[in-house]
Amino acid sequence: MSKALSVDLRERVVAAIEAGSSCRAAASRFDVGISSAIRWASLKRSVGSVAPGPLGGDRRSGRIEAHAPLILGLLERTPDITLSELRVELAEAGVPVGVATSWRFFAQRRITLKESRRTRPSSNGPTS
């Protein structure tokens, strides 16, 4: 994963822009992208700082976490529910989620969903 450019470089580019240089000229002078210079100048005007925001991390789980009581209630009511069945139940409750999202939800809680006992065992035994 890439890292953000230093705050010192960002401040020097913005200082050049504030001193009257165009964004294109400042970007060329400090060997950074034009769009970066424009973004940093805009960030300085709106926030007052050119410091980068946090990189990485989970940005999506908040949507499903809001429905944790519903999901855990469904799991408690039907312990052998599959992820596909859970997805259907959630869709009926107005919470559209994918199977992978459900998987991550349970993985974060270290809850494993086992195969249902009602399925027929595989026939991997010896053949005659």
What's the β-strand tally? Answer: 0
Computed CA radius of gyration, to the nearest angstrom: 26 Å
Give the overall shape, derived from the CA principal axes: elongated
Average pLDDT metric: 87
Q: How would you name the oligomeric state of the polypeptide chains in this document?
A: single chain
Q: Could you say which structural class the secondary elements and strand pairing correspond to? A: mainly alpha
Helix amount: 40-55%
Terminal Cα separation, in Å?
55 Å
- Poorly predicted sequence stretches spanning 5 or more consecutive residues: none
Question: What is the H/E order?
Answer: HHHHHHH
Strand fraction equals under 5%
* Biggest β-sheet strands, sense, barrel: none
Q: Given the structure, what is the number of helices?
A: 7
Organism: Neoroseomonas lacus
Protein name: Transposase
InterPro entries: Homeodomain-like_sf
Describe the structure.
InterPro entries: Homeodomain-like_sf. This is Transposase. The protein has seven helices and no strands. It is 54% helix and 0% strand. Helix 1 packs across helix 3. The protein has helices spanning 7-18, 23-30, 34-47, 61-65, 68-77, 83-92, 99-108. The chain has 128 residues and is mainly α.
Give a short overview:
The protein has 128 residues and is an all-alpha fold. The protein is 54% helix and 0% strand.
Summary keywords:
elongated, 128 residues, mainly alpha
